[in-house]
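We keep the chain:
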Amino acid sequence: MTTGPSCGTRATAGSTGTRRPGGSGTWPKPPDLRIPKMHPHMLRRTFVTTMLDAGVSLRDVQIAARHADPRTTIRYDRARKNLDRHPNYILAAFMASGT
């Protein structure tokens, strides 16, 4: 009597790869992908930056990100050095439009 999985997936000595269920060969080796390391905080930064770019107020983004201090929310904003959002450029664009 043998021990182990009943579907015949036990690897033998010298085998490579992972056995397919049912013992019908091995799975092909996955391609070597160069995926950059990511962490959950990258998603938070993207969320904050995208919301601010969309015109959502800093206070609303702060509440959505659950930050106690608006300075924390500002630090998360990757595009904070974007001159298109600088108040002086917004004012200049408003005055140039003639409205």
Notes: The CA atoms of residues 16 and 90 lie 62 Å apart. The two ends are 88 Å apart (CA to CA). The chain has a mean pLDDT of 75. Helices lie at 40-53, 58-64, 70-76, 87-97.
